[in-house]
Design brief:
- The chain has 489 residues and is mainly α.
- Among the domains are: 128 residues, no CATH class; 102 residues, TonB (TolA/TonB C-terminal domain), CATH 3.30.2420.10.
- Helices cover 57% and strands 9% of the residues.
- The protein contains 24 helices and 7 strands.
- A hairpin with a 5-residue loop joins β2 and β3.
- The chain is globular, with a radius of gyration of 27 Å.
Length: 489
């Protein structure tokens, strides 16, 4: 192939746009740190952060590494290294990456071209898109994993009561309005606009049903208003009774079930008539939705939460709005859209790619969920893989993700490979939890960590708490009792 000269003007126009590096608004935390390091001309730190993201398929980081080697910021100009990184980024259709790789290739001597091809192929084999998918990411298969096949799904028999105070905000607001009316009777005409009914909202929870027909691991997938009714909804599920799922005529744990809870809907005519304060908020969000990303995201959440209270003319589907934000690279929207597809629509093929995109940008919730799905698949078409699960759970746990820390400890116990260093770290994580954030399994895991540290006294204490609280939820704690008997014996 004839040697070509790189179009440096073109390269610099793109590579230097907006500064030396191209970074998205919602970037991997490491990329943000790398960009800051570049501004300080600390290129070594930038390289470490970029490579950390590039090694899990972050095309932006791969592209930026191509820039650094192309401009000689890590020593001498290295066109072969630069070409390899640009080509890797092109596998994810990163803008201009393929073009730059080809331009660099064309500028090399024939002997260098052969070296460049060999080196790039090695990189692709290590961290190319196919290699990473096989090594790190859950993969949807064409055939079922037979041991994961559910022949009869879990069924709710009795739902636990909802204990919450629905009118606290409403009472305070209405009492204040009435007092103002006493002071100023002319406000009577505005009374209907300021009086509100009990709080309203929605909570969607993903949970597992164990072989004893009791809920395990409830997690909020979506709530609106954020966290307003979470505790009441989770408590209701934990006190619910199910007929467990069956596989080959044996009861099994079923993962990834979904339950929606709606509040303040019964007897309500419309959002405008029954919740004028919320309707006002709705109109503000609607008008501001195109002004910025945050407003558009909140508007999508509002539509999702209050769908039942909006008229046909008022309601706009939140799904395309969320998808639009996901396509713009908004990590929280990518994660929400993925969860919506996976859990509510039961469509792994539509949801999993968005979860992976968010994880590649270091979004801890997405990293955790990838680990969770690999550890406890919700579908027979997604094979269980403890190695992938541990990789993603550990990444999220190191970002202080509480659920990832808990699940990682659980996985270590299942694999029976807990060492004393890890046990000490796990107990530090658990010590930072409030008592009401600890589940019976938390106390069981704490007992296991103390056993690893040869502290039987504390192991007995936490195992006793696990058994007691587990029994309060009517869990089957027979295995925990056996361990308790062994320690006491």
């Amino acid at each position: 192939m004839r040697k070509r000269t790189i179009n440096y003007q073109l390269a610099q126009t793109v590579l230097l746009a907006g500064g030396l590096y191209l970074t998205s608004t919602f970037s991997h935390a490491g990329i943000v740190e790398a960009t800051q390091a570049v501004e300080k001309k600390d290129f070594k730190t930038a390289q470490i952060e970029f490579e950390s993201a590039a090694d899990i398929g972050n095309a932006e980081a791969q592209f930026n590494l191509g820039v650094m080697h192309f401009q000689g910021q890590l020593g001498q100009v290295d066109k072969i290294e630069s070409m390899a990184w640009f080509f890797l980024a092109s596998e994810y259709q990163y803008p201009n990456a393929r073009r730059f790789a080809e331009e660099i290739y064309g500028s090399l001597e024939k002997s260098e071209q052969a070296k460049a091809i060999t080196y790039t192929e090695q990189k692709i084999a290590e961290i190319g898109a196919q290699a990473l998918t096989k090594r790190l990411y859950p993969v949807i298969t064409q055939s079922k994993a037979e041991k994961q096949v559910i022949t009869q799904s879990a069924k709710m028999l009795v739902q636990g009561e909802l204990y919450y105070d629905p009118g606290s905000f409403a009472r305070a607001n209405n009492n204040s309005a009435i007092q103002r009316l006493h002071r100023n009777p002319s406000l009577i005409n505005n009374l209907s606009k300021v009086l509100v009914n009990d709080d309203s909202g929605m909570v969607q929870i993903q949970y597992d049903v164990a072989v004893d027909g009791r809920v395990r691991e409830p997690e909020v997938v979506f709530s609106w208003p954020k966290a307003r009714f979470n505790s009441a909804s989770i408590e209701s599920l934990l006190n619910s009774t199910f007929k467990p799922a069956f596989s080959a005529q044996k009861p099994v744990t079923q993962y990834g079930l979904v339950q929606n809870f709606y509040f303040g809907v019964n007897g309500v005519v419309s959002l405008r008539e029954s919740y004028p304060n919320l309707y006002k908020a709705f109109k503000k969000l609607q008008n501001a939705a195109d002004e910025n990303v945050s407003s558009k995201y909140l508007y999508a959440c509002f539509l999702r939460g209050y769908k039942r209270l909006l008229s046909e003319s008022e309601y706009e589907s939140f799904e395309p709005i969320l998808l639009e934000l996901a396509e713009q690279g908004v990590n929280v929207a990518q994660f929400d859209y993925a969860q919506y597809q996976i859990y509510e629509k039961n469509d792994l093929e539509a949801g999993l790619p968005w979860l992976i995109k968010a994880a590649k940008h270091g979004y801890a919730d997405a990293e955790y969920k990838l680990g969770d799905l690999a550890m406890q698949p919700t579908s027979a078409y997604l094979k269980q893989d403890y190695q992938k699960a541990e990789y993603w759970l550990s990444k999220a746990a190191k970002q202080s993700h509480r659920l990832a820390q808990h699940k990682w400890v659980e996985l270590k116990v299942l694999k029976k490979n807990v060492n004393k260093t890890f046990a000490t770290q796990a107990l530090t994580w658990f010590s930072e939890l409030d008592d009401d954030a600890r589940t019976p399994k938390t106390y069981y895991l704490m007992a296991q960590m103390h056993l690893t540290l040869d502290d039987q006294s504390k192991a007995k204490k936490y195992l006793s708490q696990a058994v007691q609280i587990g029994q309060d939820y009517h869990w089957n704690v027979a295995d925990w009792k056996k361990l308790q008997a062994q320690l006491n014996g």
